């Protein structure tokens, strides 16, 4: 591959990509949790939660691709294994099948964690004038903040 010359020095590109790897791992872990909960939710809110979780994991499936492609744009290999995602993610896996309300609480925390991970990387990207990464991160933050709000509203 030829040398990357996009106005961001190599050290900054690598630092941003490492942060984006953590965002990718958080997003993929949240995707898996959401898909798992979609399959396994039960109770009086079954239909509503089943459909909502499907909307969420479908959106996350597109998001992980966008984040991985941004990492590749910066010239760094994107992680793609469960082992690597587990190592990088701030979101811990859930054992068993929680009850529906707990699923909502777990996913709320997961969406909030992705926002916090995005904020950490955003600082690094902004310092390097990496508008491409800040654009990806800003978009992700908006989606996760809104989703967390909607999930919290279900528990009022």
UniProtKB/TrEMBL annotation:
Ferritin/DPS domain span: 18-154
SUPFAM superfamilies associated with the record: Ferritin-like
Domain of life: Bacteria
Family the entry assigns: Belongs to the Dps family.
This protein's name: Dps family protein
Organism name: Thalassolituus maritimus
């Amino acid at each position: 591959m030829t040398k990357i010359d996009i106005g961001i020095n190599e050290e900054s590109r690598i630092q941003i990509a490492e942060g984006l790897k953590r965002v990718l791992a958080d997003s993929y872990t949240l995707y898996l949790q959401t898909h798992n909960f979609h399959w396994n939710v039960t109770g009086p809110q079954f239909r509503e939660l089943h459909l909502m979780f499907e909307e969420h994991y479908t959106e996350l499936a597109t998001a992980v691709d966008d984040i991985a492609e941004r990492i590749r744009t910066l010239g760094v290999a994107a992680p793609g294994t469960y082992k690597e995602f587990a190592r990088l993610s701030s979101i811990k896996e859930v054992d068993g099948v929680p009850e529906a309300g707990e699923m909502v609480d777990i996913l709320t925390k997961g969406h909030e964690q992705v926002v916090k991970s995005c904020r950490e990387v955003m600082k690094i990207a902004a310092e390097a004038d990496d508008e491409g990464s800040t654009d990806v991160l800003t978009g992700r933050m908006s989606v996760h903040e809104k989703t967390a709000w909607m999930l919290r509203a279900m528990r009022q």
